[in-house]
């Protein structure tokens, strides 16, 4: 697609993802407002529980606290702006704000996937090498792995932002570029560009694919070893206890990686835009919402910590 003379590096983007929705904007507003508030409350509660309760000061919960903070950032990058646009007749965002949203969304999102893969390593050490767990998975190593995840994520995101900067977008007579999405995501931005995007797509499938395959390989190998160890356990109770420690993590892995692979690693198609947006809602809204509930409802330590906190609150009152 060639660029017209009015094409620009810095147009105004109109985020029209829900403009053709079959339900009213008011209903969507209250739905996403509820999702955002519950996400923040749930993750803040989990962070406070892990920070305040000494029984939760283990490497697994240190990583879980980091994941909750990342999830709050991921939701905050997209949902407040969506709420504003749902009540606005002009859902516009400048090019600078769009790229800023793109940067923070991918910085939080990639870090999210890396931390979840580190949690798989934690599960592997817990079940397959319990005697070495505390000597290997100490707090210093967890802090280093979290910091490394952020560095890798930021470098990855800066690469893709750098590849977006030279692109042109041809807008309408008023200079507006319509994006059939609710935030500045990679695929919609590339589809709307009139420039050659082969280098961008190559980076997605090569560099982005490598960054995805590494954590996926770590998760698969960890759970392959975990599965082999569980099968060798002599008692059914021991096998059940080992499986239950991995259930929450496997649930989040399925949510997260399923939607990411669906959105970013299928061949681009105009017909898949609605499906892409539905999967993006799962990734940006539902997964951060689900994390604190999956880990609290399926985890006795977290439930007991919540009961102790609530009981202490009643005693203080």
UniProtKB/TrEMBL annotation:
Residues 42-295 form the G-protein coupled receptors family 1 profile domain. Putative odorant or sperm cell receptor. It is found in: Cell membrane. The chain crosses the membrane at residues 27-50, 62-83, 103-121, 141-169, 210-231, 243-265, 277-297. SUPFAM superfamilies: Family A G protein-coupled receptor-like (SSF81321). This is Olfactory receptor. Belongs to the G-protein coupled receptor 1 family. Signal peptide: none annotated. PANTHER family: OLFACTORY RECEPTOR. GO terms for molecular function: G protein-coupled receptor activity; olfactory receptor activity. Pfam families: 7tm_4. Keywords: Cell membrane, G-protein coupled receptor, Membrane, Olfaction, Receptor, Sensory transduction, Transducer, Transmembrane, Transmembrane helix. Its main location: membrane. One of its GO terms (cellular component) is plasma membrane. It is a multi-pass membrane protein.
